[in-house]
Amino acid sequence: MTLSALVNLSLGAILIENFVLVRFLGVCPFLGVSKKQDTALGMSLAVIFVMTMASAAAWAVEEFLLEPFEIGRLRTLAFVLIIAALVQLVELFMQKAAPALHKSLGIYLPLITTNCAVLGVALINSNSGTGFIESVLFAFMSGVGFMVALMLFSSIRARLEFSEHPEAFEGFPIALVTAGLLALAFMGFSTVEI
Amino acid sequence: MTQTGKQFKNGIIDQNPVLVLLLGMCPALATSSSMTDAAGMGFTTTAVLLCSGFTISALRKLIPEKIRIAAFTLIIAGFVTAADFLLQAYAPATADSLGIFIPLIVVNCLVFARAEVFAFRNGVVRSSLDGLAMGMGFLAALLAIAAIREMLSAGTLFDFRVLPESFPAVTIMAQPAGGFFAVGLVVAAMQLLKRKGKAGVSV
User: Which residues does chain A have within 8 Å of residue B195's beta carbon, measured at their own beta carbons?
Assistant: First the structure.
């Protein structure tokens, strides 16, 4: 893979086709854990890690198991099981190897199983039929895109707490409108040609 | 009100999955740019909710407590895969425009939440009705959001023109940013209605 292809892939995944703000994947954790910046950071790191690992595992399972045995129709099922098992493994491993990190991620680890960004990246890779290295890189960069969106959003939300807004917009609605403004900013990247 | 009526009111208004419980936000944002997409997504999710509610409730005495989450996953994934292939065979246009959001129903928190909270603890008939009611609530929310987005961005509903041609098209509403705005507005309207209901005569 050449350097320019790498730059294209990264910019595409992080800015132009941002997972949260353009593709609408992973919106639940985006809205759910963006109230505090440190939990947002922990969640993003966990998501990047699981997304990268899951897409590598999904690629291997599809290449060596689903395709040779012609059971591609079980793809969704297989991917969900891979992700669930992987999250469990990561949790067990972290508990032993990095207890401090495990403690700080807390409940966010098991929640990743139902994060549609993780299954989404595996499905997108499988639909486009990319090779191993490209798939894993795309997953990693998409995770970074998730982190960029989440960190930007959580720092805006910290200020929202002290701002005045109409009563009906209290809580989630104002957060959604703010996310809309952020998405509007990211739309500017859609015209970038790489 | 009968119990069935209550269940439906609960699913569609009091505990609307998208607008009150805020579950299943991703499909609510991604598939609501047109009424046709919203209807396709809403009905597919309803079918999955109904089937998984029925099956999980029927098997609830056989599924051990400890591995219930894995069992739910398997059952739901089975129905989602079936729905995916049925759509590809009988409604290829809908399947195309919904794309990966059909297989992604597997990780829709709404389906899991109903399996865990309701179907695993209640009888077959009530669980099926619950699936249907929650699915209807999801569908209603998607249609409300899509109505705003399609009307403002194209002046149409289900591709039928409802606003005059001279009405300026707000194309941003068809874009991702418009999705967030529309959902924010509908949730705000819901909160306003709730507040009014509480302030006025008790409902």
Answer: 167-168
Residue A21 tokens read as 């703000």
- Distance to chain A for B72, nearest Cα, Å: 11
Of residues B100, B106, B175, nearest to A80 (C-beta): B106
In the DSSP assignment, the letter for residue B191 is H
At B50, the pLDDT band (50, 70, 90 cuts) reads very high
pLDDT, mean of residues B118-123: 86
A22 contacts: CB under 8 Å, gap ≥ 6: A16, A183, A186, A187, A190, B176
Q: Tell if the CB–CB gap between A176 and B187 is shorter than 8 Å.
A: yes
- What are the residue ranges in chain A where pLDDT is below 50? none
Copy the structure tokens of residue A171. Answer: 């809580």
* pTM recorded for the entire structure: 0.85
- Residue A140: predicted pLDDT: 92
Rounded Cα distance between B194 and B37, Å, is 28
pLDDT at B200: 47
Q: Which residue of A has its CA nearest to B179?
A: A180
Within 102-131 of B, beta carbons closer than 8 Å to A belong to 103-104, 106-109, 112
Look at B104 and A123 and tell me if their CB atoms are within 8 Å. yes
B134 lies within 8 A of chain A by CB? no
- Quote the tokens at residue A96: 């032993």
Domain boundaries, chain B: 3-197
- Beta carbons of B188 and A168 less than 8 Å apart: yes
pLDDT per position as a tens digit, A85-135: 888 887 888 788 778 777 766 666 777 777 788 888 888 888 888 888 889
Interface test with B, best of A23, A71, A160, A176 (most B CBs within 10 A): A176
Helix, strand, coil percent values for chain A (each to nearest 5): 80, 0, 20
- Does the predicted interface ipTM exceed a cut of 0.85? no
B171 touches chain A (CB under 8 A): no
Helix residue ranges, H only, B59-175: 68-90, 92-98, 109-114, 124-154
Q: How far apart are the C-alpha atoms of A108 and A28, rounded to whole Å? A: 12
